[in-house]
Task: structure prediction
Amino acid sequence: MDLIDIGINLTHDSYDEDRDAVLRRARAVGVRQMIVTGATLAGSTRALALARAHPRILFATAGVHPHHAHELRDEDLPALRELLRQPGVVAAGECGLDYFRNYSPYAAQRQAFERQLILAAECGQPLFLHQRDAHRDFIALLHNAAQHAGGRLRGVAHCFTGGADELDSYLALGLHIGITGWICDERRGQHLHELVRRIPPERLLLETDGPYLLPRDLHPKPASRRNEPQHLAHIAAAVAHWRNESVEELAAHSSAAARALFALAA
Result:
């Protein structure tokens, strides 16, 4: 298979002891390429360093997650702009709004998000988007950005866990949809079984969001709760099942969609 994990937090310290082994295990099950998520300026710099150490296998995003929105200062914007222009950086983000954790005040989150929407457009980068319990404000800011981009946006609604209305609004804006192991969660993810069938094949992307969101239905259960890219094959099998297509078909169109959106070299 040829799978692409479009969202892996590979700079997380839980991978420090065995990062190379994590990459080998991923490659062994067909995960050919991975996009390393940047969530702070420092983290984005580390993500880019990993991408440069593994060319054509790893790529990076550069951005400030809403949890860290209060850390993004005026004087930081030139550094973020420079990161977004670096070869190996393929998206702006992780950026967006998170009113569930509220680690940053609402106003700071909205300001940081607006700034990153502007930088993404300026640098010609697609968006790597995060939203939790903030859909109304999130979609309003995206609509404003879309008006300046001809009505549609390039990017992915990362780790989609929402309902039909949210899905429809993202698709209408031209966004891709990232599906994680949330679809394997018998408590919270069953609504995705029907919704994944509504995502056009050219807009469906796969991701682990490791080390988070370990699929709950893995058998046997891993000794560690840490998620890693090798489990993307399990997620792909679940998504393919609910879409009534083969894993090979899913891998082919999701990887083609990822390469097209992020301009990944095969």
